[in-house]
Amino acid sequence: MNKIIIASLLVIHISIFGFGQNQCDIINNYEDFISVERASYKDGFYLMKEVVEIEEERCFSNLINNNVLFVGYLLTHFSSQENSSTLLEITDSITLRNNYFTDLKKKTVCLIP
Questions:
Q1: CB-CB contact of 22 with 42 (8 Å)
Q2: How far apart (Å, rounded) are the C-alpha atoms in residues 81 and 3?
Q3: DSSP calls for 28-67
Q4: Does the reported pTM lie above 0.85?
């Protein structure tokens, strides 16, 4: 599922910026535009993942800031949920973020060398 997110973002990025410019690696920049935290509702907990706008000088700022809803849709519907129960056991927010992004990066395949 993460492959679809990355493929979509890469296609959009390439079409906007072209091949001739310095390329940023989106895999190493997830933390810039994805927010994840543990939230509670009634008797249970869930992962709240959302896409946030980023500063203009950051990699992919135009792509992310102009397509927050679309990128959020991809994150919600196409990212893996298989480690959610393990992540929900983590109460420290920094450890949760680190584990989430480490796992997300492991499951990502770069389509362009």
A1: no
A2: 14
A3: GGHHHHEEEEEEEETTEEEEEEEE----TTSTTHHHHHH-
A4: no
